[in-house]
Amino acid sequence: MSNSIVAGNWKMNGTITESLRLVSDMKDELHRIQGVTKILFPPAVALGSLANLVYASSIELGAQNMHYQPSGAFTGEISASMVKENCSWVLLGHSERRLFFHETDDDISQKLLAAVANNIKPILCIGENLGDRESGKTQQVIQEQVSKATSALQTISNLTIAYEPVWAIGTGKAATIDIIEETLGTLRSFLTSEWGDAGAKAPLMYGGSVNESNATIFGESEYIAGLLVGGASLDATAFVSLTRQFAAAKSS
Ligand code: PEP
């Protein structure tokens, strides 16, 4: 795995047929971009078909969510072993899961533990909402999210964290580089004081209205190891282009 990451979160978009078409449209060009780990998070139903399509390419797959129990009466959920059949990553704690599905920090903590126990690489999503930011509570909120989510872990050496301010997701208003660097800098100090070397090294991503026009500036920041992309990851041309720009900025 490269130290830099570009990940596409498709959310609830695309049938299996549409997912296959989208990946076919980006696969060869994405595969050729070096120096960056490229991960797609399609709807879970498409993972099996896409695993065949990206086999032997440098494109990796992940699930957008999973349950922490290994099996049982949890209608509509998928488990770690189901995720593992087709992919090696999982997104946990996305703000849409927290908001629409009432996921708590405790749920996320158990999911993280299950992911790590099953050798699935988790990307923990954290971020403040507009009210938190306007009342000066950003650091408090995201440190609480991280502390609670990681409370059951022995180490965070396999953890990647995506900072996604809720007000920047799907709004077309990405956070400024100053806001991101200030937030990630303070988060890094916090992680290092809590987790030592693993905290100093955990990859920190940014997500929120990333597109072709801002990927380079984010790539030029030493605070940002990766991008988590929603809307723009549904457009093959845009996603390939922003990935290429991010990789180029990271290698220069
Ligand atoms: C996301 O949902 O994680 C996200 C960052 O979305 P968008 O890029 O559309 O803001």
What is the alpha-carbon Rg in Å?
17 Å
Average residue pLDDT: 97
**Order of strands side by side in the largest beta sheet?**
1-2-3-4-5-6-7-8
Distinct small-molecule ligands in the complex: phosphoenolpyruvate
Low-confidence stretches: none
- Quickly give the structural class: alpha/beta
Query: What's the CATH architecture name?
Result: Alpha-Beta Barrel
Residue share in β-strands: 5-15%
The H-level CATH homologous superfamily, spelled out, is Aldolase class I
Note down, in words, how this protein is organized.
The protein is of the alpha/beta class and 252 residues long. The chain is 45% helix and 15% strand. The protein has one domain: TIM Barrel (Alpha-Beta Barrel), CATH 3.20.20. It has 11 helices and 8 strands. It has an 8-stranded parallel beta barrel, surrounded by 7 helices. The relative contact order is 0.15. The model has no long low-confidence stretch (mean pLDDT 97). The site of phosphoenolpyruvate has 13 residues, from β8.
Helix and strand arrangement:
Layout: E1 5-9, H1 16-32, E2 37-41, H2 47-54, E3 59-63, H3 80-86, E4 89-92, H4 95-100, H5 105-117, E5 121-126, H6 130-134, H7 138-149, E6 160-163, H8 177-195, H9 197-201, E7 204-207, H10 215-219, E8 226-229, H11 236-251
Helix pairs in contact: 1-2, 1-11, 7-8
Short description:
The chain has 252 residues and is an alpha/beta fold.
